[in-house]
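User: Fold this; tokens only.

Assistant: Input:
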Amino acid sequence: MQESRVTYLESVDGLNSYLRKNFSKSSSIIFVDSNVSSEYIFDENFNTHEILVNEETKNITTVEKIWEIMHSNSVTRSTNVICIGGGVLCDVVGFATSTYKRGANLVLIPTTLLAMVDASHGGKNGVNNNYGKNQIGTFYLPSEVLVCVEFLNSLDKEEINTGLIEVIKAGFIGNNKILELVYGDDSVYSDKNLLQLAIDVKTKITKEDLKESNKRMYLNFGHTIGHLIESDSNYQISHGQAVGIGILIALEISEKEYNLNQSYRKNYMTFLNNSGLKSHYKFKKTRSELITILSNDKKVNNEKINFVLLEEIEKPILKEIDIEQAMELIINE
């Protein structure tokens, strides 16, 4: 199976040098988050377009704007479409690239911790619509992901901590050493070794199961509940915060279902508290409304949902649960 090459760079200067060396300006187009372009200087000789996007504008209207830019700039299948931004922009540009003329050469340069360890890897692209989060999307691997550590310097504490949620998720499902590193050092988030460990967990799984027929669902640990929280809050709760709560609930359920050692949840709760992250969420919508949202989850099949739990650290398991039962578990935790 095709794999994305992952290259690690220390500085934006190094990134600019890498782009100049490896990508022709005449056959490349860059889409950059306008918040990022105001912080950093990129090579002005590249054909660059600023895009401002968030969860509320992560939709087909924004994709159409990108398609229009692609058309106006004569993008072909051999064009290098380079995206510099967070997870939302990577999703949107990835989707636009995968569908415009059935695909160009996609290069992702994630600028947030969450995007570096999760959103930019594995080929999932998509947009939101009235029916839920990422309901419209494709599987389309980037040819390359450039991880530039300097971008982490511009993130605030909340962005770092919510990004660490995805790093911790990788630890729970695939490598306990990650948990030891995160819990043991507040500044470890910028350690290239930690980033690589977390990325390796995801790429190993997606290499075996790109289109989420089985093992890739492990990467949804905490996400089923997290997406429900995001939707219920009208995206006022960030993805990282929501998944953080979702992981906590999944750990509690794992204790009941598989007798998972309580110390894992307690250590994780300590991390949430020390990081100023939420550990509880009170749903606003009615039970019926929440069931409707959950029913539209992509992991639902025949009124049952594949819930990711832990038998043990590094031993995730898919448990098929009736939607009504899942709702009981979520609300009662």
